[in-house]
């Protein structure tokens, strides 16, 4: 069994760091909810798409260690390791932001994983060699197939339901905010505990 995990908004929650950055720069009122979605919609409604793009470059780049792992995600990894289930991280993002300073977003991803203990292999089973950062969605989908993932967890329905998504891979939508409708094409979970129940219950029962 090989479980693939997306990175942005699946392993890592950015709400707090986006709110902090936007307030620091005077882009939003401090009382706006600390939600990436609310901040994005506020800036777009104000015609400040470029500011939103620059915020992304900062949050995904030099300020990424201020973001937080989703609750129980490292516990999920530890349970996978104990059950003998291999896990890989497969994400797609450009190497540098579209606007702003040319921060290396791939290096920042590895820095987050290291900073927050994801690469303590004895605990999580993950090492840097298990992290695949692709430049395009097409490359990400190809990598999922090449690795032979038996299940994949992502926060975007459009990724899981893409016509080029590898056949035969179980699709799990990570949707803690219940932002997406249920669909017969994927299993929707609201937490990493629920994800463990979906993917690991049978495996753990026989270990």
Question: Could you explain the architecture of this structure?
Answer:
This protein is 42% helix and 15% strand. By secondary structure, it is an alpha/beta fold. The protein folds into two domains: 151 residues, HAD superfamily/HAD-like (Rossmann fold), CATH 3.40.50.1000; 52 residues. The strands form two sheets. A six-stranded parallel sheet has the order 5-4-1-6-7-8, with helices on both faces. Strands 2-3 form a two-stranded antiparallel ribbon.
What topology does this entry show?
Blueprint: E1 2-5, E2 12-13, H1 15-24, H2 36-45, H3 49-59, E3 68-69, H4 73-82, E4 86-92, H5 105-115, H6 121-124, E5 131-134, H7 137-147, E6 151-154, H8 157-160, E7 170-174, E8 187-189, H9 192-206
Parallel strand pairs: 1-4, 1-6, 4-5, 6-7, 7-8
Antiparallel strand pairs: 2-3
Helix pairs in contact: 1-3, 4-9
Outline of the structure:
This protein is an alpha/beta fold and about 210 residues long.
**What's the domain count?**
2
What is the succession of H and E elements? Answer: EEHHHEHEHHEHEHEEH
The number of distinct helices, counting runs of at least 4 residues, comes to: 9
CATH architecture descriptor of the largest domain = 3-Layer(aba) Sandwich
Strands, total number = 8
Text of the CATH class of the largest domain: Alpha Beta
Cα distance spanning the termini = 13 Å
User: What percentage of amino acids are in beta strands?
Assistant: 5-15%
**Category from helices, strands and their pairing:** alpha/beta
Broad shape? globular
> Strands across the major sheet, in which order?
5-4-1-6-7-8
Task: Describe the sheet with the most strands.
Answer: 6 strands, parallel
Cα-atom radius of gyration: 17 Å
CATH topology of the largest domain: Rossmann fold
Spans where pLDDT lies below 50 across 5 or more residues: none
**Percent in helix:** 40-55%
